Fold this sequence. Notes:
By secondary structure, the protein is of the alpha/beta class.
Amino acid sequence: TGAALRASFASKAQKENNHNSQPQASYKVAVLGAAGGIGQPLSLLIKMSPLVSNLHLYDIANVKGVAADISHCNTPSQVRDFTGASELPNCLKDVNVVVIPAGVPRKPGMTRDDLFNINAGIVRDLVSAVADYCPDAFVQIISNPVNSTVPIAAEVLKQKGVYDPKKLFGVTTLDVVRANTFVAQRKNLKLIDVDVPVVGGHAGITILPLLSKTRPSASFTDEEIDELTVRIQNAGTEVVEAKAGTGSATLSMAYAAARFVESSLRALDGDGDVYECSFVESNLTDLPFFASRVKLGRTGVEALIPSDLQGLTDYEQKALEALKPELKASIEKGIAFAQKQT
Ligand code: NAD
Ligand code: LMR
């Protein structure tokens, strides 16, 4: 967990002692929704990256102070703030990676789909600007419901004639981070080693941890499998309830998204060994989008790993079939929303 970030931070510390081997800070990253609960800590973590040269922070309000604050950290990137739609084009120009945590979060009693009516339009409009001003960027969607907002983003990019399925990602890293944490705790494993792939989507039963594919391999009783699967699926709700009306996961989400951004930057930088789970256009199942492990490279998704869905246990195979109708409906809802607008 967090191996990418740790490696990057470690290599940064090393470099402070040895200026000659400093990796080039040469990538431009934009955070849309940067003044929010996720946006602020995520922007801070991205500011820590030695690979980032420019960090553009965009929101509809309150972003100036966030940028001024973060800009005082003595790390390589230049931080700039952008407020409101009129400043969005300049924010996006020449950007390599756009991360989108803009939108409203859940309150207790709500599903992620209850956020659709507000967040669908926010994502549509932001991605429309991405299509106009940085069509080659990696686009990473955090805004919920991810199962619908990613298909919306794909449709908008298609309508603008710039859709590259290899460069559009739903950020599901938090599901993996949670799975790794809970499995390591339950099985008394060394956290740093544990990696659990989580596939499907990012809501309720569509979140499917493949415990049988845990590395290093671990054995689970039927009871442990059920308990861990349900906890991972409900972890977002666990945080929403603990926050009691003030929002959903922000800090763990920022950590997870920073890991995904750092992995993407390492891939862009030529590292040939970068794998993350993400909700992407996929042919691994009969659904058009599906979260699974992907190999990241300079051009985005370089490969899906079909073997990840082979040799599943009966429990996992049944859960996979059971999640498909809900995931399909959420994808179709997103596509219909985006197509209705034209
Ligand atoms: P928040 O309300 O604290 O922050 C959202 C920010 O978005 C605010 O600063 C707001 O001004 C901004 N915003 C609203 N409309 C905008 C627009 N049109 N353009 C730019 N910025 C805009 O919410 P949060 O806790 O940061 O959560 C944000 C989203 O992330 C929610 O939809 C939440 O459900 C989702 N989320 C996803 C995951 C995941 O795993 N993918 C995890 C946690 C939260
Ligand atoms: C999460 O998994 O924490 C996010 O999707 C936020 C939420 O609403 O649960």
